[in-house]
Amino acid sequence: MARIRTVALGAVAAVALSLVVAPSPAGATPPNIPSHSTAVSRLGALTVAAESHQSSYSRDLFPHWITITGTCNTREQVLKRDGSNVVVDANCYPTSGSWYSPYDGVTRTNPADISIDHVVPLAEAWRSGAWSWNTARRQTYANDLGGPELWAVTGSVNSSKGDRDPAAWKPPRAAFHCTYARAWIQVKWYYGLSVDSAEKSALAGMLNTC
User: Fold this and answer.
1) Cα–Cα distances in Å, from 96 out to 80, 87, 89, 106?
2) Cα–Cα distance, 72 to 94 (Å, whole number)
3) How confident is the model at residue 27 (pLDDT cuts 50, 70, 90)?
4) pTM of this prediction?
């Protein structure tokens, strides 16, 4: 990125403070999605266990959309990262841009139509081992920008998914199944979360589409 030069013009400085352009490419995706072969290996390394502790889950146990930098919280950072030609105001709220939702192949220009999906839902993480974590680790998980956990998708497809795993729900866009499985496996592997047998079978089938 070109270094920003200091400009001694008050009007220009005022604009710079009020509008920030986030130069994200169209169709941006989260980082550190493993290759097919790595995903196959990591799926095989995951512990297979029945889910548990469902009744004690609460979304409030995962503090999320924390401040990341300046006035930008996690949600706003993902909108900047994964949108195209995104412009934000002084409060980091997008005033223009477009977002391509890879789950369903839909593009939206209103940020209110975009949800930030935890590819492995918070409730699923809880049932798979996060029930034993402390609050700090759950906060890290819920706001993880360093891996493929957070995706900008349409609100409608995010609502249809809910907290279901790949045995019960897959993205409607079949061409994305390979990437979705690789991202899911990476998150579970990185955080040491378990998979149940039906989930593992579904993931293996999705990897076969790669």
Assistant:
1) 10, 5, 10, 17
2) 11
3) low
4) 0.87
Residue carrying structure tokens 């790669």: 210
| Amino acid, single-letter form, for residue 25 | P
Helix or strand run (H / E) with residue 186: helix 177-190
d(CA 180, CA 206): 8
Which is nearest to 30 in space by CA: 210, 157, 152, 207?
Answer: 152
- DSSP assignments along 104-142, one per residue: TTEEES-GGGEEEEESS-HHHHHHTTGGGS-HHHHHHHH
Question: Taking the CB of residue 129, how many other CB atoms lie within 10 A of it?
Answer: 18
Residue 87 three-state SS:
strand
Contacts of 183 (CB under 8 A, 6+ apart): 30, 33, 119, 148, 149, 151
Whether the predicted pLDDT of 156 surpasses 90 = yes
Let me know: does 188 contact 39? Beta carbons within 8 Å.
no
- Rounded distance between C-alpha atoms, residue 183 and residue 130, angstroms: 18
Q: What is the pLDDT of residues 118-144, one digit of tens each?
A: 999 999 999 999 999 999 999 999 999
